[in-house]
Amino acid sequence: MAILTDKVLKKYIRTPGQWNEIDEIMAPALLVQRLFGQQILDPDWSLKKHASHQLFTIFLVIYVICGTLDFLNTTTDQGQIVEGYYTLIIISSFIVKYPLFFVNRKPIQKSYLIAKTTLFDLIRENGEKAQTLLKYCRNLILLLFIMILLPFMSYILTAMYYYAIRSRVTLSKTTSILVPMTSPFYEIGFLLHAIFMFEISFLLLVVDMWFVFFMFFYCIACDRLAEILEVKRDGGVYEIELNRALKKFYIAHDNQMKYLNIISAIYKWSTLIPLCTVLASICIIMLQMTEKINWIFATNTVPTLAEIFAYNWFGEMVKTKAENVTLALLEFHWTGLRYKDKKNYQIIICYTNKAFGIRTAFGNDLSMSTMSAVFKASYQAFAVMKSMQN
């Protein structure tokens, strides 16, 4: 991994600012993004420069949509029809997320730069928290590839098994390859479907991965804010030490609020997509499983559920961390401040009492209650469709 990092990653992966340990940890995801022409953290990235990648992706999307529609026009199996519509829902989500990802590249670059410099420098003052953050980032990358490869490999291995016993099936049972099932057409169609399946899974999840990455930094930086206000009487003029801590808190808090506002703007629409996707997807998956339990298809629920959980859990954490910071500020020994500094404290108190959170474009707060509401609505839709079917 050291050879790969030193000789390849620094040469082929560019990010805003100086290369540091954060870049090194996130490098595997950035390398795959570059392979698909989606490495938008590169300051020199442009749509024109990677036009060939985007045109190939558009070709794959059209190819798979046509294959799915062709299959739906020829099948009468209820379970496969449901699975086919699930495929179209995921592709629709991809079509919406794909341009949003590129449109927000400048804010994403700015957020990444703030995270790996300003926030990480603050977090690094506490060595234990810095190591915890780096561990979280490593686990995040590992989880990303597990969630991609688990469903992907289940489809690949199934198709390869049938191929080994001289029986040819499509990679997805609900998508036709639109060419004869003979060599070399079958192999070409199989390869195109495999590339598309991995790319669509990667892009859909990598957008969510960056959200989790940004929120990791925000949450741990909030913990550091509370620590800044813990001033001990170790020596020196206590009043001056209190004022110095309060000033440092104000600057760090202001930077974090600017950072959070950028994240909120980036994911204003992107957070709405998973809510709508999960609402439809869970309903369709339950409909499919009432006909026949397909364990390979059921693996699709893993990234789907993880996606909505991550968004709403971190939305809840933003509110919790804001309350913790306000509480730490209230417990601050403000009575020990000089008179002129107490006015600054009162201004900061008024500012931190504002409601902070992440909302979708429709004004929905990201929280655990929102997630439960989506699951409830999805089940209600499933119950209605099942009763109509009966």
Automatic annotation (TrEMBL):
Which InterPro entries does this entry report, sorted A to Z?
Answer: 7tm6_olfct_rcpt
The record's principal subcellular location, in a coarse class, is: membrane
* GO CC term, one of those recorded: plasma membrane
What parts of the sequence cross the membrane?
A: 55-72, 84-103, 140-165, 185-218, 266-287, 293-314
Q: Which residues form a coiled coil?
A: none
Q: Name one GO biological process term.
A: signal transduction
User: Which domain of life, per UniProt?
Assistant: Eukaryota
Which compartments does it reside in?
A: Cell membrane
One GO molecular function term of this record is: odorant binding
Q: One of this protein's Pfam families, by short name? A: 7tm_6
Membrane topology according to the record? Multi-pass membrane protein
UniProt KW keywords: Cell membrane, Membrane, Olfaction, Receptor, Sensory transduction, Transducer, Transmembrane, Transmembrane helix
PANTHER family linked to this entry:
ODORANT RECEPTOR, ODORANT RECEPTOR 19A-RELATED
Family under the similarity heading: Belongs to the insect chemoreceptor superfamily. Heteromeric odorant receptor channel (TC 1.A.69) family.
- Protein name per Swiss-Prot or TrEMBL: Odorant receptor
Q: Which organism is it from?
A: Bombyx mandarina (Wild silk moth)
The gene designation is LOC114245242
